[in-house]
Design brief:
The chain is an all-alpha fold. 63% of the residues lie in helices and 2% in strands. The protein is built from 29 helices and four strands. It has helices at residues 3-43, 47-56, 58-82, 87-93, 106-122, 156-161, 164-179, 182-213, 219-266, 269-281, 310-313, 319-326, 348-354, 363-372, 389-394, 401-413, 416-423, 427-436, 441-455, 457-467, 476-487, 495-506, 514-526, 528-531, 548-560, 565-579, 594-604, 609-623, 631-643, and strands spanning 97-98, 129-132, 140-143, 151-155. It has a four-stranded mixed β-sheet. A hairpin with a 7-residue loop joins strand 3 (140-143) and strand 4 (151-155). Helix 5 packs across helix 7, helix 23 (514-526) runs parallel beside helix 29 and helix 25 (548-560) packs across helix 27 (594-604). The radius of gyration is 28 Å and the shape is globular. The chain starts with a helix and ends in a 16-residue tail after the last helix.
Length: 659
């Protein structure tokens, strides 16, 4: 199943979730009605008389049903508002601590490095990492509404007990949930479950108030809230029953898929099996102790809370079955705790040998090995020569060991000074400004004057120092992705100034290059959700034939990048041929401005997944039309894909000219 099919599947599951929620709500109301009828039946002489009394209470029953529906609806909406900040809200709900991007703690640094490599390899912005310090079990989760507000969380036990390769398996598992659309479904599921159980929570509050605040009342006055509290708890138990069934139905099967995806990412089934065996071996297993763990139990890497009737209510498959899926020859035994070596923390001496690849190969050795021994057809090998448009589309939302090894190589080539600055909350802004600094002295002077005016002369000097470092073009977008966790931590009152400076630097020369536009789009898509969480999202779908002008604009912008004037029309026609839409026409370079592109993508992001696949294939056809893909073309293709919510990994060595 590819990325686009996974997104469609997640969308269908969202519709199923709504249906299950409605059915569960109706089931709760009718169960309450049935209990009331049974109470009447115990006091009535016969069933007919009980039914008569039941019908005579129609108005009261209708009011009771409306109250139950209102409380469930309120609980759902309340949780949706609480979680609108995305993954950070979930992590904080579980007691998570944000790991600073520049952390020097060996365990935290190991986790951060793996997360960065996975993000670069998948074409996603690097998500912030949260540590559950009080949890000694082995578990993890990914949470968020979209990649722009996604986070990855790990227990301290996972960071401490797992080796680097085992962490890669766990984090690969979580990235598969991000890429497959499961993450957004999980947030919705939390809201739905909270609505179903809120009556029980309200009942506990009423009972607590009755017990601790009702001593001065007479017994008759205290009876009503006592009965009301017990009744609410019983109804809430029904909600918990239905909610647990919904979570189990939605969550269980996809864990097998995520395990398989993680093995595909790393080509190391042994690492995944060892993680699961360690969970089975330690006394704490994968359990979380936090009071809110049950709310997010469907998000975890492994079963996070104990449940009754595990075959019915467990959100994850049995541990033994998961192990045998990835290691069919497992003998059923777990290692003892003394068998766990302390995870090795690399030093500068051995970094060169172990920093690259899952088997310790450097990118060059890895490429040579894969050229000599090509993998199966389902696994894109490191290519030489111009890729086909359909191959670039197939890479969207897809992780494999070749892309992860390439991502490691890209990260290793970034100058350490820039990498350290990208991890620092204050200096990450300097890195972005340095990448936008023009090579034309007159334009650069205007940009420095702008920074001096907004932030003062000291920041302009720091930007100038970073700009002197040589950064190959193919490293610019990966470095930008690494900056995001630090950028998200800038003070709220500084963000308007940062955005104003960003816009001013882009416009300083009176024209907007497409890399500058790519940076602008990345900030809009991945940074603003952290500072403007209430921003409305696109609603409804459009068809390609309803967006002919916008499609023409995007294909034209790509055709103008890096192509000779005489090749522009040929490149555009190659893309138009893939779509075969009537009315497509080449636009001039001047018509492909930043505002026009933004407006076009605002509409095109509402395409259905199958149409997005066709559009990205057409865009890829444009850049491969002349038989050579430049770094600039690869950057813009990835920026367009990202704006369409379809993350594309960096092109592999040999696919891009001059890389």
């Amino acid at each position: 199943m590819d990325f686009f099919e996974s997104q469609e599947r997640a969308r269908r599951k969202s519709a199923v979730l709504v249906v299950l929620f409605i059915l569960a709500t109706i089931g709760i109301v009718f169960t309450v009605y049935a209990l009331i009828y049974l109470l009447l039946l115990t006091d009535a002489p016969n069933a007919t008389q009980a039914w008569r009394e039941f019908k005579s209470m129609a108005d009261l029953l209708a009011m009771l049903g409306a109250i139950i529906l209102a409380i469930i609806g309120f609980g759902t909406i309340f949780k949706m508002v609480q979680l609108r900040r995305g993954g950070a809200a979930v992590a904080e709900l579980l007691g998570g601590r944000l790991v600073m991007p520049d952390s020097a703690n060996p365990d935290e640094r190991k986790v951060l490095n793996v997360v960065e490599e996975m993000a670069i390899a998948s074409g996603l912005p690097v998500p912030p990492v949260y540590m559950l310090d009080q949890e000694s079990g082995i578990n993890a989760f990914a949470a968020g509404q979209n990649p722009g507000d996604a986070v990855v969380g790990l227990t301290s036990g996972a960071a401490r007990l797992l080796t680097r390769s085992e962490l890669q398996a766990v984090i690969g598992h979580e990235f598969s949930h991000i890429l497959n659309g499961d993450m957004r479904m999980n947030i919705k599921l939390m809201s739905v479950i909270h609505g179903l159980i809120i009556l029980g929570l309200a009942g506990r509050v009423i009972l607590r108030m009755t017990v601790y605040g009702g001593r001065s009342r007479d017994r008759r006055g205290a009876a009503l809230p006592l009965v009301l509290g017990v009744g609410f708890i019983l109804v809430g138990s029904l909600g918990m029953f239905f909610g647990s069934m919904i979570k189990a139905a939605v969550s269980r099967q996809r864990e097998y898929l995520a395990d398989a995806s993680a093995v595909q990412f790393t080509r190391d089934s042994r690492a995944m099996a060892e993680v699961l065996k360690k969970i089975g071996a330690i006394s704490q297993g994968s359990r979380l102790e936090h009071a809110n763990a049950a709310q997010a139990s469907h998000m975890f890497f492994a079963q996070g809370v104990n449940v009754l009737m595990t075959s019915l209510f467990a959100t994850h498959p049995p541990l033994e079955e998961r192990i045998r899926r990835v290691e069919p020859g497992w003998d059923g035994t777990y290692p003892v705790i003394s068998d766990f070596p302390r995870p090795h923390v690399r030093t500068a001496k051995d970094a060169a040998a172990n920093e690259f690849g899952f088997s310790g190969l450097t990118p060059k050795q890895y490429q040579e090995q894969h050229q000599e021994r090509p993998g199966p057809s389902s696994r894109p090998a490191v290519q030489s020569g111009t890729p086909k448009a359909i191959d670039l589309t197939a890479s969207v939302g897809r992780l494999d060991d070749a892309h992860v090894a390439h991502a490691r190589g890209l990260r290793e080539r970034i100058p350490p000074v820039l990498l350290d600055a990208a991890h620092d909350t204050g200096q990450a802004q300097w890195v972005v400004f340095a990448m936008l600094l023009s090579r034309e002295q007159s334009v650069a002077r205007a940009q420095f004057a702008l920074l001096d005016k907004i932030f003062g002369p000291s920041l302009a000097r720091e930007v100038a120092n970073l700009a002197r470092l040589e950064l190959p073009r193919e490293l610019r977008l990966p470095l930008m992705d690494i900056c995001f966790p630090a950028l998200r931590r800038m003070p709220f009152d500084r963000y308007p100034a940062f955005r104003s400076a960003l816009h001013g630097m882009i416009q300083a020369d009176g024209r907007v290059g497409l890399f500058e536009w790519a940076v602008h789009r990345a900030v809009l898509r991945h940074l603003e959700p952290s500072f403007e969480p209430g921003r409305p999202s696109a609603f409804g779908h459009v068809a390609l034939h309803q967006a002919v002008d916008q499609t023409s604009l995007i294909l034209s912008a790509l055709a103008h990048v890096g192509a000779r004037a005489e090749d522009t029309a040929m490149a555009f026609e190659a893309g138009a041929k893939e779509l075969r839409l009537p009315g497509l026409g080449l636009r001039t370079r001047e018509q492909c401005g930043i505002q026009a592109l933004d407006t076009a993508l605002t509409k095109l992001v509402r395409l259905r997944e199958s149409s997005k696949r066709d559009l990205i294939t057409a865009c890829a056809a444009v850049i491969v039309a002349d038989g050579q893909v430049s770094i600039a073309q690869a950057e813009i293709l990835r920026a367009v894909s990202d704006a369409l919510e379809c993350p594309m990994p960096p092109l592999l060595p040999g696919q891009v000219a001059g890389a």
